Amino acid sequence: MTANDIIDKKKKGQELTKEEIEYIINGYVQKKIPDYQISAWLMAVYFRGMTDSELLALTNCMSQSRDQVDLSKISGIKVDKHSTGGVGDKVTLVVAPVVAACGGKVAKMSGRGLGFTGGTVDKLEAIPGLQTEITEDKFFEIVNKIGLAVMGQSANIAPADKMLYALRDVTATVDSIPLIASSIMSKKLAAGSDKIVLDVTVGSGAFMKNESEAINLAEKMVAIGEGAGRETVAILTNMDIPLGCAVGNNIEVVEAIEALQGKGPKDLWEVCENIASLMLSLAGIGTKEECLKMVNQSIQDKSAWKKLQEMVEEQGGDASYITSPEKFTAATYQEDIVAQEDGYIDHMNTEECGKAAVLLGAGREVKEDDIDMTAGIHFFKKTGDKVKKGELLARAYSSSNEKLTVGVKKLREIYHITSNPLPEEKAILCYVTKEGVKR
Ligand code: URA
């Protein structure tokens, strides 16, 4: 067997065996196969795709490329949740404490934001003192004690994915559904949970720009999860409009706290209650309907909000910020964007909204960039909303006056007003399980 034969086979559209896939991936990780051959193989996969059995072999091999987390030290069924990313996506900050307050176990490894999408770890670090770089033993101890902990993903999880992703990034092979599916699922399988809920975002602020692509990706990831013996369900959520009203680290944490207090935006709560009840029903805590009631009860009786306070304390943070969110530092500079005429807000390009937040300082353009925790955008009006001339549309925040100027310029370009009403945006599009697509 040689790398050249395997590239040639894939180029001709023939199915690779598990051994051939392992030869390629292990050879790359062990630096026996050079970048140029893997690049050619990635491009062949890009054009030829992968069968379900090739995809499972690839994902298993990537997930086993180094450490695999053994969550057996945590009692009960552990359910993980993963989002394919978006703008204003603070769902984990809400869902994890809700699930724990309802008796579920959440041992969550999360990542940082890059480009126009935010990351849970950065948002959590907006809470003074909170540590996401904790040892695995501490992580298990906290989950056993209070039902949840969120830690930064260790560099030892699926290193094959890191190497392949870096190469995909420079060989125009990122936007391949089998390569995205295996990349995400390799990390989920290595993170050790028994069940997996995938939030596959769809629209202008997501990787998947339309529903049929997103269903295709969801089906592939569900097939991988199920093939690896982990029950996996995907929920497709709307990312054609920013989720909630806040985009930026401090203000997103505040919005998540408001959601836990029962006063968050409607679209955010709709996504959170569906994901949380799905996670709980997969954990065997009740039917989806029973779990939905428990989820709403955890908001009414404030147990989910208290759970976040406990988590923050256990991870070394200052929980007074969760009880008194007004303590979060406000930005030095802010500027309002107001409607120039009467009408309805036309479709907002959500990726551009995320980019405007990055320009304000809320995100990173490259890995090494620092984040301005106070920067961001508060959307008072979003796609489809009716507005009057002079009404407040959005408020931009930054600790740099220069960044404020460029961010606001972009934000003004995003807003367009039309005289025609738009159809109402749905928060949840459909579910994908091993049985198929459910609406
Ligand atoms: N997220 C990942 O982890 N990998 C991809 O390939 C795309 C999104």
Describe the structure.
There is one protein chain. This protein has 439 residues and is of the alpha+beta class. Helices cover 45% and strands 15% of the residues. The protein contains 17 helices and 14 strands. The protein has helices at 3-11, 18-29, 35-48, 52-63, 91-101, 120-124, 136-146, 159-169, 177-190, 211-227, 249-260, 266-282, 288-300, 303-314, 320-323, 350-360, 401-414, and strands at residues 79-83, 106-110, 148-152, 195-202, 231-238, 246-247, 333-338, 343-345, 376-379, 386-387, 392-398, 417-418, 428-433, 436-438. The N and C termini lie far apart (46 Å). The structure holds uracil (URA). Residues 165, 179-180, 183-184, 207 line the site of uracil (URA). Uracil is lined by residues 165, 179-180, 183-184, 207.
